[in-house]
Design brief:
Oligomer: single chain
Strand order of the largest sheet: 1-2-3-6-5-4
Shape: globular
Structural class: mainly beta
CATH class: Mainly Beta
CATH topology: Thrombin, subunit H
Distance between the termini: 30 Å
Largest sheet: 6 strands, antiparallel, barrel
Number of strands: 6
Strand content: over 45%
CATH superfamily: Bacteriophage SPP1 head-tail adaptor protein
Length: 106
């Protein structure tokens, strides 16, 4: 359905005229669905010292390896991405989707 919205955040480093490195955020708003982390993924990740909290499902063509997300006023770090293969439900929605497994940003 993709009836929610998040902001993908990429940190871009540039050099100003003085030679200083400047970090700027490049923000892109995209449509998404929000899902819960599965119980098995949560416990498996916890055993590897990771703490997944939320899963965002977006169109795979919107994602350019951004490492941060802002959603409903909170920031998240992308832990991993997952592209479903669509074998069990090969609809265009499943083929073109990408899951972003995230944890709360520090």
């Amino acid at each position: 359905m993709m009836d929610d919205e998040l902001t993908l955040i990429e940190t871009v480093k540039t050099v100003n005229e003085m030679g200083d490195i400047i970090e700027e955020e490049k923000r892109i708003s995209v449509l998404c669905d929000v899902e819960s982390v599965t119980r098995s993924e949560f416990y498996t990740a916890a055993s590897h010292d990771m703490q997944p909290e939320i899963v965002f499902v977006i169109n795979k063509f919107d994602y350019e390896n951004q490492s941060k997300i802002e959603y409903s006023g909170s920031k998240y770090d992308v832990i991993r991405t997952y592209k479903p293969n669509g074998k069990h439900n090969p609809t265009p929605m499943n083929i073109d989707r990408l899951e972003l497994v995230c944890k709360g940003a520090d």
